[in-house]
Amino acid sequence: MRQGRRTGTTALLVGPAAAFFLLLLVLPLAVVVIYSFGERGAAGGYSPAFTFDNYLSLATRGQAFLNTLLLAPLGTLLCALVAFPLAYFLAVKTSPRWRTMLLVLIIVPFWASQLLRIYAWLLILGNRGIPSLLDLLGMDGVRLINTRFAVLLGMVYGYLPLMVFPIYVSLEKLDKRLLEASADLGAGAWGTFRQVTLPMSIAGVATGSLLVFILLMGEFIIPALLGGGKVFFIGNALVDLFLQSRNWPFGAAIAVSMVAIMLATIALYMRFMLGRSGLRQQALV
Amino acid sequence: MRWYVVAIYVFLYLPIALIVVFSFNAGRYAMDWQGFSTEWYFKAFANPFAMKALRTSLVVALWTAVLATMLGTLAALGLERMQGWPRRAFDALIYVAIMVPGVVIGIATLIAFVTVFDAVNPFLAGLFGDAAPQLAMGLPTIIGAHVLFNLAVVILIVRARFAGLDRSLIEASEDLYATPFGTFRQVVLPMIFPAILASFLLSFTFSFEDFIIAFFVSGPDSTLPIYIFSSIRRGITPEVNAIGTVVLAASLSLLVIAQFLLRDRNARRPAPDKAA
């Protein structure tokens, strides 16, 4: 009887959240898979069928896949490269007095609308921004906006804080005496970095990269604003197919392919980054 | 190294400075400075569409934060009591919810709502005739999708805090004849409070900032990001900059106030509580 009551309480605690997950995530995702084998209805939306046509015509949106699969990993890598020295400086070189403030200053931009911040880059990179300054210096005809460069810059800008924090946390836990010991034992700055600092902070890099990669794969705003119509992602194709041209089955096929690619990439990545170093526990949250 | 760090901070703040500066532009075109003016602030507050979007965003974010924090905390506590496959299944659900990109969550919830509405509306019409209430996209659907999106994050935050707790305190409370609810209220709740507060603030921020999920399920009720996005499409005026500046100023003031209150509390309490 007591056991029964205990189970009842647990069910009550977990029930509402489980209902949300089941009704708004699991079932709809299953429906997305079913839709991906259907046909576009006459007035848009979905009409039942069983066909592989949607998957066979994925290539017509090949450019979106290519851009996403090229720029999302590249953006993640750049983000990590830019974030690491900053996180290192904050964790190792900064006095505690300044540290909190500098850390807070990294999060503050998040409270200004992301859309507006990316829009500001549209102005900075647009023809009246940096190119017009370069023009004065005699370099005319430089185009920055609506290029892959602009999209990459926006990606690094948008997600840098998410990369800095996990790396900072892992570097902060690092025992500073290890760095001294390494120097005492004759290792150079590079040797200490490669053999002590990097291996001990790899969990932070792995967590940050995973976080940023997941968000970049589904990105919509940055390519929409900084890529113009030229550099678009899978996210942009999905918005188009679901909200504008209303070809839901084709959109569903693209969504299913995207999630499949993501899951495969993440699984490979975890095996590579974490599997052999035994850091699985630390790195996941 | 120092210069590198300075450069990064300039990189982070340059766009924000631009937004704030041009909110005081007298002219109506971006990057075309016509002199100082605060007129766009007045125009923004007199614009019914912008104000409605702001109100929608605040209502959605508040409801999302309350519901996601409440349901997520309960689920995290419940999960602690679960074992075996139900627990593993639930963990899997949490990771799916975190790994699926926002744009796919938008699609999935859109499909779920449309399917349910299409099934229920004819039934309602049959029941009540012409006066039947019609289910449609709007505030509740945005809130539902946002709660789903934030639940997993809340569960992870609260669970991390709960896992670090000293269980002997709970046992002590039980030994001292506290009822389960008494133990929860007097022992567990105060200990996980920082995690609850962090969850609330995080869900509020995520919901307030979200564009892509709301874009799919908002129906006629635009949130602030949707309003800003369509303004950018139409050609933006400093009015939007003014709204952005006000939102930034408001969140910064809240941050300062929160810092002030926490410091006050920590000063009175011997043990400072840093981890959340």
What can you tell me about this protein's structure?
The complex is a heterodimer of chains A (about 280) and B (about 280). By secondary structure, chain A is an all-alpha fold. Chain A has helices at about 1-35, 55, 60-95, 95-105, 115-125, 130-135, 150-175, 175-185, 190-215, 220-225, 235-245, 250-275, 280-285, and strands at about 40, 45. In chain A, a hairpin with a 5-residue loop joins strand 1 (about 40) and strand 2. Chain A is globular and about 70 Å long. Chain B is an all-alpha fold and about 280 residues long. Chain B is about 80% helix and about 0% strand. Chain B is built from eleven helices and no strands. The longest helix of chain B has about 35 residues, at about 50-80. The radius of gyration of chain B is 23 Å and the shape is globular.
SSE inventory with pairings:
The complex is a heterodimer of chains A (285) and B (276).
Chain A: H1 2-35, E1 39-40, E2 46-47, H2 53-56, H3 62-93, H4 96-107, H5 114-125, H6 130-136, H7 148-173, H8 176-184, H9 189-217, H10 221-226, H11 234-244, H12 248-275, H13 280-283
Antiparallel strand pairs in A: 1-2
Chain B: H1 2-22, H2 39-46, H3 48-80, H4 84-99, H5 102-128, H6 139-163, H7 167-175, H8 180-209, H9 212-217, H10 224-234, H11 238-268
Helix pairs in contact in B: 2-11, 3-6, 3-8, 3-10, 4-6, 6-8, 7-8
